[in-house]
Design brief:
This protein is α+β, with helices and mostly antiparallel strands. The protein has twelve helices and 13 strands. A hairpin with a 2-residue loop joins β3 and β4. α9 packs across α10. It is globular, with a radius of gyration of 22 Å. The N and C termini lie far apart (about 50 Å).
Length: about 325
């Protein structure tokens, strides 16, 4: 048996080795659902037509993927249980995990069955590795690696060596390229070797990397203020929530509210909450049967706090690159 065999009892992500799967999406919600065995909700937060591409390869207890998105997205994510996720940007671009900026030579990580937030910029690409926790720990023990598993389970960011990170990126890219071309017994053996090379590179980073300190109390307070403001806005979904309303609800000044949103999400409170509500309208329209008339589109918009239909339609087109009625018509044709 290979030193890095990941044979495990059945889990949501237990699959025999298979060919690369590629999925292209032109809708942010469709893109969110393309990643196997994840629970995800995506909101587009910058303007323009969206396109997402996912390349995904799986073996028993292991998932490796490359995800690209054309527009900035706020993501609520959760990996399947009893696993560890590791995220590596293809190029460092200033994304955030749970509000914390991801710098150079940093690997993101979160355990399974634990919700976390990512905010990605325009034209973003990321590699992902999800692996069964027990299997990774057993492999590390056989290779003599000794990561601090308890701290790693609670970590968000891991500072690693530049060359080790580059090696891991190259191994992931080589595996996905091979998986997209190969078939047959010889290909299976080659993919097994590539899989082991990815995991060896990952374990080397975990063994030598430094887990960054958990977020401090002041940042956690800012993040809590943002979360409380979001929850208040969603609880009053049908109302045009204003900044003074938010300030009163979360007991902070206008200046503090602005600072918290810019620090945690990189945007103003009203810009973020407007995009959140516009995404809610889009989600509701996509969930319909494609027969919505302008009147019913207006009803859905009003249910999300947009009282002025003309302004709503303009804002919707600016964010998504098409009017709500054009989006509904396009879905009807398909």
């Amino acid at each position: 048996m290979s030193a890095l065999s990941l044979s495990q009892p059945d889990t949501p992500a237990t699959h025999s080795q298979r060919a690369l799967r590629t999925a292209v999406a032109r809708d942010v919600d469709e893109h969110a659902h393309n990643l196997t065995d994840w629970e995800q909700r995506y909101d587009q937060i910058t303007c323009g037509r969206f396109e997402g591409v996912l390349q995904e390869w799986q073996s028993s207890g292991l998932q490796i993927f490359r995800e690209a998105s054309s527009r900035a997205v706020r993501q609520s994510c959760q990996v399947w249980p009893d696993a560890l996720w590791f995220g590596i940007e293809v190029r460092t671009s200033g994304m955030r995990i749970n509000g914390r900026q991801v710098g150079e030579d940093v690997v993101m990580t979160r355990p399974g069955a634990c919700e976390f937030e990512l905010v990605t910029p325009d034209a973003h690409e990321i590699y992902g590795i999800v692996v069964q926790r027990d299997a990774l720990q057993s492999s590390a023990a056989r290779l003599g690696c000794q990561p601090d598993w308890n701290r790693l389970h609670r970590a968000e960011l891991l500072k690693v060596g530049h060359q080790g990170l580059e090696d891991c990126r190259q191994q992931i890219a080589a595996l996905l390229a091979l998986a997209g071309q190969a078939s047959g017994a010889h290909a299976h053996a080659a993919l097994q070797l590539r899989q082991e090379a990815v995991l060896v590179a990952l374990l080397a980073m975990l063994d030598e990397g430094e887990i960054e300190a958990q977020a401090g109390a002041s940042f956690l307070r800012r993040r809590r203020i943002v979360n409380d403001a979001r929850e208040f806005a969603m609880a009053h979904q049908d109302s045009p929530v204003t900044v003074p309303m938010l300030c009163e609800a979360v007991h902070v000044s206008r200046r503090t509210l602005q600072y918290c949103f810019e620090d945690v999400l990189g945007m103003s409170p009203m810009s973020y909450l407007r995009s959140l509500r516009l995404n809610g309208v889009r989600r509701a329209l996509c969930a319909g049967d494609g027969s919505q008339a302008v009147g019913s589109i207006g009803d859905i918009a009003a249910a999300w706090g947009f009282a002025n239909f003309s302004q709503f339609s303009c804002d919707y087109k600016k964010l998504f690159g098409q009017t709500p009625s054009a989006m509904v018509q396009a879905r009807t044709r398909h």
